[in-house]
């Protein structure tokens, strides 16, 4: 299985990443990607940009180095009500909203609290995907949340960075999450979570995991540009600019 979309990348605007958007796009082109989502950390994360950074993404070209550019964010889940730290008037201007737990923003609690929070985030209708759920600091009821995501057409990210050591203890949990997603009919997205250009489009650990469990390619929305755009259209976003991909 080959992935042609990277749905999780960071630029220097995130405060703890080290490459520019142009450098990331050049790396994406070298890796043969069709599309790349720009997902800098939303304002609650220490060091992250002001909300104007996200509102102003409308100025970004739709193609850089031949790679289609999706305007997005890695939003922070901020409370048990499942709220994120960008207002709807901003997120509705974006193509892609990935929502994640981050320890500096949401203090880890107990399994039930995390479960309730994720269910509320899904129910909010404001996010396309849930990021790096394998983090053992945020345990949750896997089947309950992943089933709810499948029913709400919210995709589950399998994060290459988590599988390569950035969040210790994630690997076996990511495999369990992917197996449950396979069983309950949920779809997946693949993100490098690159904080440096060389990691954009790096999916080696994701590829190995999904091959191991024989996850169906038709439910990995990053396996083709057409499939990814179709997913966004199913969520109400029309991107005629990329119709030829």
From TrEMBL:
Cellular component GO terms, alphabetical: cytosol
Keyword Cell inner membrane: no
Domain Polymerase/histidinol phosphatase N-terminal, first and last residues per copy: 5-79
Keyword annotations of the record: Hydrolase, Metal-binding, Zinc
Residues annotated for Zn(2+) 1 binding in this entry: 8, 10, 74, 193
SMART domains per the UniProt record, alphabetical: POLIIIAc
Cofactor: record remark: Binds 3 Zn(2+) ions per subunit.
GO molecular function per UniProt: phosphatase activity; zinc ion binding
Protein name (record): Phosphatase
Organism of origin: Photobacterium sanctipauli
């Amino acid at each position: 299985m080959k992935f042609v979309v990277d749905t999780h990348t960071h630029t220097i605007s995130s405060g703890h990443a080290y490459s520019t958007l142009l450098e990331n796009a050049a790396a994406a082109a070298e890796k043969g990607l069709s599309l790349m989502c720009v997902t800098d950390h939303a304002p609650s994360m220490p060091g992250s940009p002001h909300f104007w950074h996200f509102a102003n993404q409308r100025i970004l070209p739709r193609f850089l180095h031949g790679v289609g550019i999706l305007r997005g964010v890695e939003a922070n889940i901020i409370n048990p009500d499942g709220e994120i730290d960008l207002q709807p008037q901003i997120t509705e201007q974006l193509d892609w909203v990935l929502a994640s737990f981050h320890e500096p923003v949401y203090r880890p609690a107990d399994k039930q609290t995390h479960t309730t929070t994720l269910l509320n985030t899904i129910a909010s209708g404001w996010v396309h995907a849930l990021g790096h759920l394998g983090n053992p600091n945020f345990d949750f009821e896997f089947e309950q949340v992943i089933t709810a995501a499948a029913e709400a057409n919210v995709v589950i990210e399998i994060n290459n960075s988590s599988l390569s050591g950035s969040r210790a203890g994630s690997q076996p949990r990511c495999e369990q999450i992917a197996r449950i997603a396979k069983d309950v009919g949920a779809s997946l997205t693949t993100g490098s979570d690159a904080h440096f250009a060389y990691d954009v489009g790096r999916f080696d650990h994701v590829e190995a995991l999904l091959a191991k469990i024989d996850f169906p390619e038709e439910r990995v929305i990053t396996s083709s540009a057409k499939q990814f755009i179709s997913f966004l259209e199913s969520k109400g976003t029309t991107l005629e600019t990329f119709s030829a991909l």
